[in-house]
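A protein record pairs a chain with a discrete description of its three-dimensional fold. The following entry can be read in just this way.
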Amino acid sequence: MLRLAVIAALGFAGLGFVVSASAEDSPEQRQVSVTGTYHSNYDDVKLSQDGNRVYGTYVCCGGGTIEGKIVEGRTIKYVWRQPTGWGLGVWTIERGRLDGTWGTGQNETSGGRWDLTIVKPKSQLAK
């Protein structure tokens, strides 16, 4: 069975996500940064965020890429791609981690769990 090598393991181990907001911002307008390096149940993942877009790479299964979008404030919907296949997935942004699933083709859950824990948030990445 095709194993997912998705680098969107956005979990924080004891660290919080960076949230930028003003007093007037609604919950939907508050921006959460998921940029960083993560460990996951499918090896290491690196994610970068540009606005509500999320891009990344992962090591598992020969390596691959992740492209996604933050929707509804705390949900990331993404597409993973690697030389042997592609699929969809979804993560929920939680304090210090990304919890979710991946699937093959148009299915977001057929592959199982894909949970990430942050190793290095954006603030600790080498400049």
In short: Residues 37 and 46 are 4 Å apart (CA to CA). The first strand starts at residue 18 and ends at 20.
